[in-house]
């Protein structure tokens, strides 16, 4: 495998019509959807209002439905609603269409319970009646681009340099992109169908030497894995047997070096590799950028591990779970299993500024040789971190409810009167209130 920088195509345009034009090449080969069988649902580009009596019918009536499970009192839900209103008519115009719907899960709690709704808003995509969690962006133009992935063909055939460029641009930056150069579609069709929700797949059999130079491959067949958001790519020359191909695809779904955040942790849930976490003072400073460059070189040679970095300034709660505090010398590297355990390497407590490449290599050698100290994290697990924000909100709500109930019970409680003890009872009440 080789890696090289790649031009990034912006997806930040707020012009939704332009976005649809960019997405059209990905949808041309998609089969048309059958017309709605019930008159109660009109594909008019408006957000459908669902409730107990029509929820199941709507889900079964359309192949693709994005459902917003909301509560009227939820501030985040109120901010999301206009974005869904903007996206709905354009998603309805895709081929096949994606219908946008919403249900008041606070009112229709049976529906919320059936679909494990434990926070608002929760978005789910129902594909042929089967729900999957939607964790993508929520601005209208990016949401459109993200959902187009669900209805596009598993593999897109590209027949020219311009088609390749258009495919990359229309795919956006939310998913990795795989392009098989000189590769038969049948060789990757199974993997494309299996990982359709996580990446774009295509094959190109007519391209110039300029394309070969741009994507840094010198022979075919070759499979390029591209992460436009991280300006990163790698090349796989085979063998194109299913096991080796799947290993490469699974490893390439995550960039060489992952910036760790609440959102990016979600991409690690199905990956069994351990995570080399480099803890920095501030992800944005020049020193950190130098460390990240060194980590990319190490990650390229150690694809059996995931490499990630996080700044103390950016996510203090996560960092402190690994016993890293304000006075801890940084950068520091640990190896995390994504659950409750992590390892520190003896003699590699921190990375000095001089000759960082050698120090990172020494850290990895020490880890592979077993010169480690096993430790228990002091914070949540991977799933715990992902759910932590919702958990905090629920805890605060519960505490508030308990306090209110206690105050009500206290204020309505009648104390028994006893002869000659009135002043004492007043004193006791004052003590309780204090």
UniProtKB/TrEMBL annotation:
<dbReference type="GO" id="GO:0006457">
    <property type="term" value="P:protein folding"/>
</dbReference>
<dbReference type="InterPro" id="IPR036249">
    <property type="entry name" value="Thioredoxin-like_sf"/>
</dbReference>
<feature type="signal peptide">
    <location>
        <begin position="1"/>
        <end position="36"/>
    </location>
</feature>
<feature type="domain" description="Thioredoxin">
    <location>
        <begin position="24"/>
        <end position="152"/>
    </location>
</feature>
<dbReference type="GO" id="GO:0005783">
    <property type="term" value="C:endoplasmic reticulum"/>
</dbReference>
<protein>
    <recommendedName>
        <fullName>Thioredoxin domain-containing protein</fullName>
    </recommendedName>
</protein>
<comment type="similarity">
    <text>Belongs to the protein disulfide isomerase family.</text>
</comment>
<keyword id="KW-0472">Membrane</keyword>
<dbReference type="InterPro" id="IPR017937">
    <property type="entry name" value="Thioredoxin_CS"/>
</dbReference>
<keyword id="KW-1133">Transmembrane helix</keyword>
<keyword id="KW-0732">Signal</keyword>
<dbReference type="GO" id="GO:0034976">
    <property type="term" value="P:response to endoplasmic reticulum stress"/>
</dbReference>
<dbReference type="InterPro" id="IPR013766">
    <property type="entry name" value="Thioredoxin_domain"/>
</dbReference>
<dbReference type="Pfam" id="PF00085">
    <property type="entry name" value="Thioredoxin"/>
</dbReference>
<keyword id="KW-1015">Disulfide bond</keyword>
<keyword id="KW-0812">Transmembrane</keyword>
<dbReference type="GO" id="GO:0003756">
    <property type="term" value="F:protein disulfide isomerase activity"/>
</dbReference>
<keyword id="KW-0676">Redox-active center</keyword>
<dbReference type="Pfam" id="PF13848">
    <property type="entry name" value="Thioredoxin_6"/>
</dbReference>
<feature type="transmembrane region" description="Helical">
    <location>
        <begin position="390"/>
        <end position="412"/>
    </location>
</feature>
